UniProtKB/TrEMBL annotation:
Residues 139-165 are annotated as: Disordered. It holds the Pfam family Metal_resist. Residues 147-156 have a biased composition (Basic and acidic residues). Belongs to the ZraP family. It comes from Zhongshania borealis. This is Signaling pathway modulator ZraP.
């Protein structure tokens, strides 16, 4: 009897451990994409910013994590639904336009939350750092070029000086 009870106990423990490992794997597959996306957005937002900017940004991102995650999920769902619409043999222009509209709305919602995070951080920064952020944002939006279309040279005048472009 003792060896039989030991064998049953070992089997039960094995089932519990295997169930936990499978649960962790499935959870990572389902929720892991959201975590990786949030991490990627955080990394992108902090990419070229000074270290003084990093801590307030991290705190603001933590405060809005739930909103950002749900906005990201909605965008992902809208994109998946668009693929479903495109896979249908006979689809209509209205269905495709509705799918594009849903994607657009989801992207706008995600940008809105991201901009709220930036606003909360930027208001805390001194003027020089806000101007540095604005200058780097202009360069980043123009594909690495200054507002005039040329790359700024070392020692050249900043794009924004004393709050005026």
């Amino acid at each position: 009897m003792t060896s039989r009870k030991g064998l049953l106990l070992a089997l039960l423990i094995s089932l519990i451990v295997n169930g936990a490992v499978i649960g962790l794997f499935i959870g990572d597959r389902i929720e892991g994409e959201d975590r990786r996306a949030m991490h990627g957005m955080t990394r992108q937002m902090l990419r070229d910013e000074p270290s003084e900017f990093a801590e307030p940004m991290r705190l603001a991102l933590e405060a809005h994590r739930g909103e950002m995650r749900s906005a990201y999920r909605e965008m992902r769902r809208a994109r998946h639904d668009m693929v479903k619409v495109l896979k249908v043999p006979m689809t209509s222009i209205a269905d495709i336009n509705n799918s594009f509209a849903r994607i657009r709305d989801a992207e706008i919602a995600l940008k809105k939350v991201s901009h709220q995070v930036l606003a909360e951080v930027l208001v805390q920064l001194p003027l020089e750092q806000r101007l540095h952020f604005a200058k780097s944002e202009i360069i980043r939006r123009s594909g690495g070029k200054s507002h005039s279309g040329e790359r700024p040279e070392k020692g050249s005048e900043p794009l924004i000086k004393n709050g005026v472009q």
